Amino acid sequence: MATFTLRDRIPNFTLPSTTGETFNFEEHQNQHSEWHLIIFFRGAWCPVCVQDLTSLEESKSFFEGKNVHIITISTDKLEDLKNMAEENNLTFPILADEKLEALKAFDVFYHDEEAPYEDHGAHGEPAYFLVNEKGELLYQQKQTSPFGRPTTTELRKIVQYIQKQMK
After folding, report:
1. Are 128 and 141 in contact (CB under 8 A)?
2. InterPro entries, alphabetically (predicted)?
3. 118: which DSSP letter?
4. ∠ at Cα 140 (73, 29), nearest 5°?
5. CB–CB of 132/35 below 8 Å?
6. To the nearest 10°, the Cα dihedral for 142, 7, 67, 81?
7. Which among 30, 95, 105, 151 is least surrounded, fewest beta carbons within 10 Å?
8. Residue 96, exposed/middle/buried by CB under 10 A (0-12, 13-18, 19+)?
9. pTM of the full predicted structure?
């Protein structure tokens, strides 16, 4: 499992997208030499996650104006994620990590049968990674439960603060 410090290069990942394409982070980054906000969320079944994703969609133009691309990842089933994306008109990449490859590469918490409490079955927990155009980590936050994750407003503030304070 990876432990990242600031400026570490994040791992590449290749995952299926709800649009039917295969998404490769390095290829995407080569096409969009900008910052990326990579968000792991619990799943299409999680009402808080859906609300957060909808809020991100509403703020998508803000992030794009700051040259930040949003990418989201869940361990949920691709078909369920596709239905959620369509129902909520989500236009940023939503990727399915059913084999837990990206989750493990980023050391995101996974709630499974070994967890000390029941919580909607097995799933990845929320995590946030802001990376620059070189793929270097500028910010991270990982949760062990659905609570404590930053709101869209807080993510906007984080992006603005880090961009303003860059050396």
Report:
1. yes
2. AhpC/TSA, Peroxiredoxin_AhpC-typ, Thioredoxin-like_sf, Thioredoxin_domain, Thioredoxin_ResA/DsbE_sf
3. -
4. 55
5. yes
6. -30
7. 30
8. buried
9. 0.94
Domains parsed from the chain with CATH numbers:
24-146 (3.40.30.10)
- HSE (side-chain half, CA atoms, 13 Å) at 166: 15
Enclosing H/E stretch for 114? none
Q: Within the chain, where are the H helices?
A: 25-31, 47-58, 60-65, 78-87, 101-105, 152-165
Residue 122 corresponds to which amino acid? A
pLDDT in tens, 57-88: 999 999 999 999 999 999 999 999 999 999 99
- Distance (Å, rounded) from C-alpha 46 to C-alpha 25? 25
Please report where in the chains the tokens 């940023």 appear, as a residue. 92
pLDDT digits (tens, 9 = 90+) for 22-47: 999 999 999 988 999 999 999 999 99
Reading the block at residue 93, the tokens are 């990449």
Query: What's at 150, amino acid-wise?
Result: P
- Catalytic residue numbers, as ranges: 49
